[in-house]
Design a protein that fits this description.
Elements: H1 2-11, E1 44-51, E2 54-62, E3 67-73, E4 81-90, E5 93-100, E6 103-115, E7 118-127, E8 135-142
C-alpha cells in the first residue's frame, strides 16, 4: 500500500507554493498596433510631412495584426497618388512598400519618435525603380486636427 501511494504521488504534477497570494496573469506583450498613435484601429489617419524635398500627405490605416495600408501624395505636384502597404515589424518600427501605377517603386523604413509632444515617423525611402535609385529622407507626423 505504501508503494502504491508513493507511485501515485510520483505521477502527480508538483506545484510549489511560494506565496499565499492568488496567482497573477502576466501582462500580454505589447501589440505592434500600439504604434497606431492611440487612434482607433482600422481608422484612416492623416499625416503631414515630406519625402525628399517635397511636402507630402500620408493617409494610413493601421490593422490589429500590424498591417498598414494607405497612400500618399505631394500636394504641390501633379496629383499622383502612391499606394502603400506595409507592416509594423516591431514596436516603433514600420516598413512600407510604395507602389506607383501598381508597380513596386520603393521601400520605406521608418522609426517612431516623439518631438514636442507629437509622434514623428522618420526614416529612408529606397527607390527600387530601375530608372531611379535615389535614397530619400521621409518624415511625417499626424495632423493636429486629426
Amino acid at each position: 500500500m505504501k508503494n502504491q501511494l508513493l507511485a501515485v504521488l510520483l505521477l502527480l504534477p508538483i506545484g510549489l507554493v511560494t506565496s499565499c497570494a492568488p496567482p497573477v496573469t502576466p501582462p500580454l506583450p505589447p501589440s505592434t498596433a500600439d504604434t497606431a498613435d492611440a487612434m482607433p484601429i482600422g481608422t484612416a489617419q492623416t499625416y503631414v510631412g515630406s519625402v525628399g524635398t517635397h511636402s507630402a500627405v500620408f493617409v494610413l490605416t493601421w490593422q490589429p495584426d500590424g498591417n498598414v495600408t494607405g497612400h500618399y501624395y505631394h500636394p504641390d505636384n501633379s496629383g499622383v497618388i502612391f499606394k502603400l502597404k506595409g507592416k509594423n515589424t516591431a514596436l516603433g518600427e514600420l516598413v512600407l512598400t510604395e507602389y506607383a501605377a501598381d508597380v513596386q517603386s520603393a521601400i520605406i523604413s521608418l522609426k517612431k519618435s516623439t518631438s514636442h509632444g507629437l509622434i514623428v515617423w522618420s526614416g529612408k525611402m529606397h527607390n527600387t525603380d530601375k530608372h531611379d535609385s535615389r535614397v530619400l529622407d521621409v518624415s511625417f507626423t499626424r495632423k493636429a486636427d486629426a
